Amino acid sequence: MTRGGKRPGAGRPKGTGKYGEPTVPVRVPASMADEVVSWVKAGGAGVPLFGGTVRAGGPTSVDDFVEDRVNLHDYVVRNADATFLVRVQGDSMIDAGLQEGDLLVVDRSLPATDGKMIVAAVDGELTVKYLRRGKRGVELHPANPNYQVIHVNEDEQSFQIMGVVTTVVHQF
User: Fold this and answer.
1) For position 112, what pLDDT does the model report?
2) What's the CATH number where 150 sits?
3) What's the farthest any 2 CA atoms get from each other in the chain?
4) For strand 117-122 and strand 159-169, is the pairing parallel, antiparallel, or unpaired?
5) Does residue 147 sit in the same domain as residue 101?
6) φ and ψ at 94, to 5 degrees?
7) Helix, coil or strand: residue 83
8) pLDDT per residue over 58-82, tens digit each?
9) Any catalytic annotation for residue 135?
10) Does the pLDDT of residue 1 top 60, yes or no?
């Protein structure tokens, strides 16, 4: 018999798929297959998004219904294959609202244009700063007057832009 069944060497090698790991079969009722696939692609149940808004001034009435469910991944990640997270250490960007322990969402696929907040590796150390490109070359500007501008000399320093900061997750 030449059709069907297990054949040595057939199929995709284990660990070479999208997630780089072996897969397992999962059985769901046929009537729910599309719904389950959509749910998995959306990252699961998501977080409830309540209808209406919340005022930063005086109190307002509360809506008693959930308008939608929001997957935060979809909300903060533009290009999953080019995105990474990194925690903030230090206070050189405090005036930009970045605090110790904040989580940065960084996208490697976005252009690092003048004025963007970027994560860069300078001499093997990661730093988050505002990118400035001027007559003197590349400069990394802090958002704290207690810190100096880093003037990048690519002839004497290793320098690589790791990505553009798109979102800051701050916990109180």
Assistant:
1) 96
2) 2.10.109.10
3) 77
4) antiparallel
5) yes
6) -60, -35
7) strand
8) 665 655 566 777 778 887 888 888 8
9) no
10) no
